[in-house]
Specification:
141 residues, elongated
């Protein structure tokens, strides 16, 4: 019966390897979320570019009220309402930067700290153990 504390070739227990693996997976998923925010930022920007073009064409066609609505109500507006009543909201770049600077950077630094403290800075310890085991198995050991 396994206690979860068996030592591996890395010198770490199964529990330590599993904990580091969960941190790695969490950070990898947060990087994927970051990628989705980048895509959101780009798609939002491209959509706003189309609206800016529509403003010009509407004005050219004599539909100033519609052009003014785009110019005044939508182009300067953020994608998420701001907590400040005088602010027109948070733009997609602001959301992306906040995620990067106030969350992702901190959790990545935590992952590095955990790897440093538990595994002498080695990352992907579980995968390294799996790779070593599979190579041994393929070599007939």
């Amino acid at each position: 019966m396994s206690t979860g504390n068996e030592a591996h070739d890395s010198g770490l227990s199964s529990v330590e390897i599993d904990a580091l693996h969960e941190i790695d997976l969490g950070i990898e998923h947060l990087h994927r979320a970051h990628g989705h925010l980048v895509a959101f930022h780009h798609a939002t920007g491209r959509g706003m570019d189309h609206l800016a073009e529509a403003e010009h064409r509407l004005r050219e066609a004599g539909h100033d009220d519609l052009a003014n609505a785009i110019r005044d109500d939508f182009l300067p507006r953020g994608v998420i309402e701001s907590a400040h009543p005088d602010d027109q909201g948070r733009w997609s770049y602001d959301i992306l930067e906040t995620y990067q600077d106030e969350f992702l950077d901190d959790i990545v630094a935590f992952g590095e700290r955990a790897s440093d403290e538990v595994a002498d800075g080695q990352r992907h310890v579980k995968e390294r153990t799996q790779e070593r085991d599979w190579k041994r198995r393929a070599g007939g050991e």
